[in-house]
Structures are given as structure tokens and as C-alpha cells.
Amino acid sequence: ASGHVVVVGGGYGGATVAKYLRMWSEGGVQVTLIERNPTFISCPISNLVIGGQKTMEDITVSYEGLRSKWGVRVIQDDVVAVDAAKKTIALKGGSALSYDRLVLSPGVDFMWDEIPGLKGAEAQNKVLHAWKAGAQTVALRKQLESMKDGGVYAISIPKAPYRCPPGPYERACLVADYFKRSKPKSKVVILDANEDVMSKKGLFTKAWSDLYAGIIEYRNNSEVKDVDAGSNTAVLEFDKFKADVLNVIPPHRAGDIAAKSGIKLINNRWVDINWLSMESTSTPGIHVLGDAIFPAPTMPKSGHMANQHGKLAAAAILNLLSGQEPNPEPVVMNTCYSFVDSKNVIHVSSVHQYDAATKTVQPVKGAGGVSAARNELEGKVALGWAKNIWADMLA
Ligand code: FAD
Q1: 313-328 tens-digit pLDDT
Q2: Residue owning the nearest CA to atom 45 of ligand 1
Q3: How many CA atoms lie within 13 A of 125 on its CB side?
Q4: What is the pTM of this model?
């Protein structure tokens, strides 16, 4: 195959598709990756930085491997516009690039309109989400370190679908682990907009009662409708909740560039794709990966899944660039590990196979499952998973 593919976003989906396009075409396809950040910083394992068990250095990886080993042209810039008819993109830096096929893996952006009190920069710098790893990860850790013993940390979870279903519960555990060691009079309150724990429920609730009785309190049906950032107060439907450290994860949608490129979004939020090629159903030539897509049934928004999307799309794009049809029976899989303390981990896994009748990928019955119980062996496996997937994407 030959041609020029431009990839927007060097996260779990984008970095993977960039590398695999170069590797599988044996250098035949030119690949340009545009990423606004200078280095890759991983959301998976970032909850351990917030809990004080790992450092930012542990979750940061350079783009140098993509450049020097795989010949990907990596440009640090922001993509501000896409012209799907002319097959060009515009960069904030002023230049434009043309493509034969475009891949968007922009992750998520937040729906600030849903939480009016968080619309300004000042409020956003005080009431953090830390749902994109980077400066906010460091800032949330600092807030927790400065909190007095006996204080309350509250984390709010938006209604599903959101990025990383088990992630907020993992964060609650790791903050509680830190409190148990360093600020034993402090509390963690989970304000969940959903009716129930969204992932690994039995395993998380067991960790809360075994390890964090009297520390973690879980409240379901507690959607944050607004925030008073000045007083760190979350406004719920019938109630208000004031915390010492308030961590609000606002509802999110496909990264802004998806809407700006004029492709079809479902519910004004997620991109509708053709699962055989990950191509937008409205706009041929634009493939979309990762958290930005309208998820298939039971499919989580995860880094592991975005990495699988990257490989599915790379194979399909190489076929399309050679005038062939994509594989008619793609299969993808997922495993998400969650730390419940600094050593013990639980996992959930699933396999999803394309179904021609429903034109989507469906969960394969009997495949996957969850850990029997939290255990330290999976703690080692989880750190190995992270190192392996970063190498798979970037080295
Ligand atoms: P991202 O990885 O977010 O990549 C998007 C990239 O696009 C970003 O680097 C961004 O800077 C860039 N970008 C966006 N727009 C533009 C633009 N216009 N121009 C240039 N660049 C742009 N998943 C797991 O599998 N396992 C876990 O254990 C796990 N733990 C998590 C823990 C936390 C706390 C969080 C928040 C998430 C976790 N996840 C986990 C989920 C995982 O991080 C996401 O699902 C994954 O990052 C999605 O990949 P993506 O490529 O869609 O987006």
C-alpha cells in the first residue's frame, strides 16, 4: 500500500494506528501524527500518581520511538480544522496538510455547559477533573497533600458512558489508601450519577468494606448538576455537598475536533462509525478511534480498547489504500486492571466480535470475566500490562 495518512491525537488509539500503519506497510505508507502535547502521558496508572504510589515520570513516554524507529512524522501542534471535501487539515501553527485518509483519535472533551459553575478557567483550576493525565494529575495530588487530616475528598462520576468505567472507583481506593497511611481521620465520598457501581461491583464494594470501612462512603444517584468552586460545594438535585478537595469529572463527549470536522455525532456526543473500517458513517475517508466513538454494546471506553481500534483501523486502511475490502470479521478484546491499594489489583476482560446482522461488534458470550478476588499477582501483571502497551504503541 502507499499514500499519506494523517493521524490526529497521539494517545492510545492514535499512536497505535500510526505505528502499525508504518510497520504493516513496511514503510510504504507515509504517516504524519499531530499531537498537541510534547510527550505521551498515560491515564492508566495515573491514579497511582494521585494516590502518591507512582510519579509522573513513571507514566510519561517520549514520541522519539515513533519518529526514529518507525519513521512517523510527529508534529507537535493543534489541529484546528478539517476540510473533508478537500482532504486537508489546518494546524494552529498556521500550516495545512493534505491526506489520502485521516484518522481522528482525539479522546474526549468536557461538556462544561452541564456544570455552569465550572465554565471559567479560575473555577476549573480549583475544582479539578484530572481525567486527562498531565498538569491536573499533579495539581490534584498537591491538593490532597495539602488537605488537613480529618478532611473530606469527594469524587463525582458522570452518567455512563464515560471514559474508563472502573477508573473513578480505582481513584477512590487509592486516595483512601493514602489517607489510611498518612491522614487516617480523613474520608472519601463517591458521588455517582449512576444507579449503581458501573464496573467490578462486587470486587470494589468488598475492597471498600474490607480495607476502607469508615473511610470510603458510596452514594449512588448523586449527579452533580452544578458547582460552587469558591466554597468547593457540589450541587446535587436535592442536596449540596461541601468537600475539602472536590474532584468533579464532568460529562464528556468526543474530542472537539470531531464536531469541527463536520462528521456525524450521535446525541451530539459520539462519532458513529462503520465497524469494519472504523470509518465515519457520514464522511468517507475519516476514521475515528478510541473514546470518541459511539460505543458498541458493553464496550468500555478504555486505553486497551483504543489500542485495539488502532490495529483494526490500520489493517482496514492498508486494505482500502490497496483497493481491497477490509476484513469482514474483526474481533477486539479488552482488559482493564484496577488497583484497590498499592499492591492488590482486580481485572475485568471481554471479547467483542463483528456481527453482520446488527452491523456492530457484540460481546462474545462466555469470553472474559472478572478476577475471583483482589490479589498481588495481578498487581505485577497490571504494571506489566502498562509497560507492554506503551511499548506496543510507542517503541
Ligand atoms: P487519548 O489517549 O486521550 O488521546 C487523545 C490525544 O489526542 C491526546 O493526547 C490529546 O492531546 C490529543 N488531541 C486531541 N485533540 C487534538 C487536536 N485537535 N490536535 C492535536 N492533538 C489533539 N484504560 C485502560 O485500558 N486501562 C486502565 O487502567 C485505564 N485507567 C484509566 C485511569 C484514568 C484515571 C483515566 C482518566 C482513564 C483510564 N483509562 C484506562 C482510559 C484511557 O485513558 C482512555 O480510554 C484512552 O486514553 C483513550 O484513548 P484515545 O486515543 O481515545 O484518547
Answers
A1: 999 999 999 999 999 9
A2: 302
A3: 3
A4: 0.98
